[in-house]
Design goal:
The protein has 158 residues and is α/β, with parallel strands linked by helices. Helix content is 31%, strand content 23%. The protein contains 4 helices and 8 strands; from the N terminus they run βββαββαβαβαβ. The protein has helices at residues 40-54, 79-92, 112-120, 134-144; strands spanning 7-11, 14-18, 31-34, 61-65, 68-73, 101-104, 124-127, 147-150. α3 (112-120) packs parallel to α4. The longest helix has 15 residues, at 40-54. The protein is globular and about 45 Å long.
């Protein structure tokens, strides 16, 4: 009999069953929607941030630069709260967010996260896309010189 690899959690008198997330994006999966083509170093930071966000409890935001994690915000009720948590954490350790990458486990339904991240110094964004309002965050990136790539795959972990 095959070994069952699904993850099960109790949830308000029921059970939540999730299959393992085995997807690992590469730069070939990037769909550039705003800004310049990411350099090799930025693409590597995007992959790193995306791998970390994949293994983080949703809603999750990861901030990375120069091949290392700067901070993350995880398990929040909104992506804005997760981003604020990540920014506050970075600032509490005096970590610079200038030219950092932001990864999200799910899409941005509004431009608020990219605007908050941009004001904190983030310049690059990787996210799955898929919101009916994707253009809000894409337009913000285009208007402010940020680079955004979409992967088409959500890493949403409960």
């Amino acid at each position: 009999m095959p070994v069952r690899t699904d993850r099960m959690r109790s949830a308000l008198g029921g059970v939540l069953v999730q299959q393992p997330d085995l997807k690992a994006e590469t730069p070939a999966d990037f769909k550039l929607v705003a800004g310049a083509e990411p350099s090799e170093a930025v693409a590597a930071d995007m992959i790193l941030a995306n791998k970390i966000v994949k293994h983080s409890k949703s809603n999750a935001i990861v901030l990375a630069r120069d091949g290392r994690l700067i901070s993350s915000g995880v398990g929040q009720t909104s992506r804005v709260d997760a981003l604020r948590q990540a920014i506050d954490k970075a600032h509490s350790f005096n970590l610079d967010l200038e030219d950092a990458v932001m990864a999200s486990d799910a899409f941005f339904p509004f431009a608020d996260c990219v605007e908050i991240a941009h004001k904190a110094g983030v310049r690059y964004v990787i996210q799955p896309g898929g919101s009916i309002r994707d253009t809000d965050s894409v337009d913000y990136c285009r208007e402010h010189g940020l680079t955004m790539v979409m992967t088409g795959f959500r890493h949403f972990r409960h």
